[in-house]
Amino acid sequence: MTPTIPSTLGVEPVLTAPVCPAPVARAVLSDEAQLREHLKRCPFETIEAACAFRQSGDLSLLPTIVRGVIARFAGREHRDRLTHATAGELQLSADLGLDSLTMMEIVMLAEDVFPITINNDELRGLRTVADVQRFIECKLRRDLK
User: Fold this and answer.
1) Three-state DSSP class for residue 15
2) Exposed/middle/buried for 47, CB within 10 Å: 0-12, 13-18, 19+?
3) Is the CB of residue 96 less than 8 Å from the CB of residue 78?
4) For position 60, what pLDDT does the model report?
5) What is the pLDDT of residues 132-145, one digit of tens each?
6) Three-state DSSP class for 33?
7) Residues in CB range of 102: below 8 A, 6 or more apart
8) pLDDT tens digits for 43-75?
9) Contact, 97 vs 74, CB < 8 A?
10) Contact, 124 vs 103, CB < 8 A?
11) Structural domains of the chain sorted by starting position, each given as residue range(s) with its CATH number in brackets
């Protein structure tokens, strides 16, 4: 017996099977949606670079992603420095006002974006934005082999 759905518009509804994307497509969409959710307070170019990185593994996107993740947690008064200064000059604490708790938040977001894990001891040597970029690049190269 076929169920009947009453029509309120004078047109009989058409029953069709639900259309579901292939499981792989759902996983990719879900992964990208989660990534976008994690990065929702980051600059747009950071989100786009992170999505492209997930697809390609292109390490040339790393500076855009790292600066955007840091910008997410830096105070408004420090964000312009991330755009205009070179990464080697920018001190995480002195120039960007990042404390150890904020660094832990940055680490958690970086672990969501990149396929790496970072422990607390590894953070001690990171003083500049360039240090963070090099550190993540080294972790990615080592972990992706």
Assistant:
1) coil
2) buried
3) yes
4) 95
5) 999 999 999 886 65
6) helix
7) 73
8) 999 999 999 999 999 999 999 999 999 999 998
9) yes
10) no
11) 23-143 (1.10.1200.10)
